[in-house]
Each structure stands twice: as structure tokens, then as C-alpha cells.
Specification:
Blueprint: H1 2-8, E1 21-22, E2 28-29, H2 32-51, H3 58-66, H4 81-102
Antiparallel strand pairs: 1-2
Helix pairs in contact: 3-4
Length: 103
């Protein structure tokens, strides 16, 4: 609990406090509310921006599935890793579609 309190109540050293920031139009602001909003806008849009640059391919699915260890057990309600490896050529395009929709 003490560690959580330290994290919540953390105050960065003065040298780490951002005193001004440049807006996307090049204008510099030192208003704390503006600085906060600029960071918020940036990080709120970061996921969408990155997801547009990421696309999973069938080859990546195949590589990852081939790394599964046949000698390891899969969860009891799941198909065996050996079965999944054999199925990859038939299901990789479907998996790619699902994964890319989730990004």
C-alpha cells in the first residue's frame, strides 16, 4: 500500500516539469492547462495512429504458431498445438482478418 501511495503522490523534480511546449502550429505555450491538453490529445490519438501502421500477415501467424512446442500441453478446452500447426494453412487468412480488425 505504501508503494501505491508513493506512486499516486509522486511529485517530479523541478527539472522534470515541462514548462513550455510547442503546439502543432508551431506556437509555444507555457499555460499548464494547454500543456496538459496537448499531451492528452497526443497520447489519446497515438493508438489509432500506430494501428494504421501495423498489419499482421499470414507469414507472421505461421511463424508464431510454428514456435509452439508440441510437447507442451494446451489448455484442456483447446485444440492441441500439433493440431493448430497442421491447421495453419487453412486458418491463417481468417486469423489475419480477425487480428487486423482488432488492431
Amino acid at each position: 500500500m505504501e508503494k501505491l501511495n508513493k506512486t499516486i503522490n509522486y511529485k517530479p523534480p523541478i527539472s522534470q516539469i515541462i514548462k513550455e511546449i510547442k503546439r502543432s502550429n508551431g506556437e509555444v505555450t507555457s499555460n499548464n492547462s494547454d500543456i496538459s491538453n496537448i499531451f492528452n490529445d497526443y497520447f489519446a490519438s497515438l493508438g489509432e495512429t500506430l494501428s494504421k501502421k501495423i498489419e499482421i500477415t499470414p507469414q507472421e501467424i505461421d511463424i508464431i504458431i510454428q514456435l509452439f512446442d508440441n510437447n507442451k500441453s494446451s489448455p484442456s478446452n483447446s485444440p492441441s498445438f500439433r493440431f493448430v500447426k497442421i491447421s495453419v494453412p487453412h486458418i491463417s487468412n481468417i486469423l489475419v482478418h480477425i487480428f487486423n480488425k482488432c488492431i
